[in-house]
Amino acid sequence: MELTRREALAAAAAAWLALGPARARAMPPRPAIGDAMGLGIDLTPQGLRTPGVLQDYTVLRRRPWAPRLIARTTHIRFWVDWPFVQPDGAIALADPANPGRRHLHALDDQVDAAVADGLDVILMPYRYPRWVNHTTRHFHGKSPEWRMPDSGHGPESPWARFVEALWLRYSCRMACFEVVNEPNLQIWPQPGVAERVAAMVATVDAIARRHREPVTCLAPSISDAESDRPFMITEQRP
Fold it and tell me: Do the Cβ atoms of 61 and 113 come closer than 8 Å?
């Protein structure tokens, strides 16, 4: 007997319902979600590099559709692009003579605006100036600014001094500090990157404990990229 499309769909639905109780008994119970999930905004490094573009939060918040978006948002992440905010290693981040002060002040304005809008700010240091890693070469498409410095990420490293300068400037305005973006994909060299990230976390933890502001230290967001070239991408498990 030939079934109409509606009859076939009804038969399939009945079969699925008949399997439902057995499937439900076989499935483990789902764990309850303890806290409500939040909505975060990530504006990429461009808002710091080029103030005035849409990724600049002071611009975004003035768009007619922004109030409804911001009202449903809990967190916002800002990328502190180190080569832009401190291009000269001989001049401290907070020094008025810092040639990166324009970008730093743009970040100040965006952080202040986000806090005024009731958002929890996440700061994340990004990339390395060439005066830190002393390289100008690319590596399989990865820029020199993504090369981790030989000076490492320990408590006496230039990276630690940069992080502490950010801490002193923003700790009263930020809710979270994230150590690095996608370390298993973006930065290079990849061998030993998990140990490097562990050193970053330990250094940030020590800075947080020293200054005692109520800031949450975040482990890095990990890329889900895959590759058969371990010198390019590290598996997520390490």
Answer: yes
The Cβ of residue 210 has, within 10 Å, a number of other Cβ atoms equal to 11
The answer to whether the bond into 189 is cis (omega within 30° of 0) is: yes
Please report where in the chains the tokens 């930065």 appear, as a residue: 187
The pLDDT value recorded for residue 235 is 77
By DSSP bridging, strand 75-81 and strand 216-218 are: unpaired
The residue written with tokens 């939060």 in the block is 57
Separation between Cα atoms, residue 25 and residue 30, nearest integer Å: 12
Interacting residues of 81 by C-beta distance below 8 A, sequence separation 6+ = 45, 48, 49, 103, 126, 127
Query: Average pLDDT by consecutive 10-residue portion of the chain (238 residues)?
Result: 48 45 50 73 94 96 96 96 97 96 97 97 96 93 92 95 96 94 87 92 94 88 74 74
Per the DSSP assignment, residues forming a β-bridge with 126 are 81
| Residue 228 in tokens | 């058969």
DSSP 188: B
| Region of 235 on the Ramachandran plot (φ > 0 left; ψ -120 to 50 alpha; else beta) | beta
* Residue tagged 């057995």 (tokens): 22
Q: Where are the alpha helices (DSSP H) in 27-95?
A: 46-49, 57-60, 66-71, 82-85
Q: Which residues pair with 33 in a beta bridge?
A: none
